[in-house]
Amino acid sequence: MKKIALLLVFVVLSCQNPYGTVSTDDEKSAVIATVFKSVGDEQIEYLKDVFSDKMELVNSQGASSDKTSFIAGVENMMDLFDDIRFTDMNGDAEGAEIETNSYANGIVWTNIWNTFSATGKYTGQEVNFPFHISYQWEGNKIIKEVQFFDTTEIENEMNAKLAAANASEKIVVLLELKVNNGYSKADVAALVQKLNNFVRANEPNTYDYTYFISTDARKVFLLEKYYSSADMILHAQNFEGGPNFTPFMSTFEVDSFIVAGNVTDELKETLKAYPVEYRSSIGGWIY
User: Fold this and answer.
1) Quick one: which of 100, 225, 256, 273 has the most CB atoms within 10 Å?
2) Is 201 helix (H, G, I), strand (E, B) or coil?
């Protein structure tokens, strides 16, 4: 009997002092619902009011930004898509929901999981992707937003927008190479592995760097992509001043060297010693 009484006291104390509570029909959950209705209606003023001027946004890649960048990002998304909509949330937690977690230490987070659906204004494509976002509160203002979702669809639409305006800063490099006498396919593969390792370790914004070899192993096609001219300048400086210049030039003869995109004067100056052919965009898009 004594054990039962102690157990009942423990249960009562646990109920009175929980680690936190979860609610789906509270004021903060309702605020987040209004945030997403405002996004669907392409109205930005409500977001400007409910998000703190001190807010921090942490995106899916772990990068942080402030309120100004956050609002600009939402406005950009509204420009990228028509008919933005979300799955209905009715409290049953089947596929979509908003819930607010209030912890015993005073920290409050509101979480939403849902599906973003829209039509791309620049691609004309229908997009649908699931997302999860967490919001931390400071009083009645959102002080932090943490995003968890794949941004590929948004990036694809942004690429199409930039292509339509011929405003992309991305640079594509195409090199046709001849394999010099005395070098085998195995030699080429070993060198390429060293080049790949170096680029991965030193050039985070070289986002495509691929070698293709002919069936007779005498020709190699190299494709490089950079987010900007500045990123290619870094690559060129690393190449000329690093450990790979001599083995590369010993293994290959450059047959053609094409640099495509909106190239800056600084990049042209960097590459002036090479027989580069520059080409500009006349249509399509670049990933």
Assistant:
1) 100
2) helix
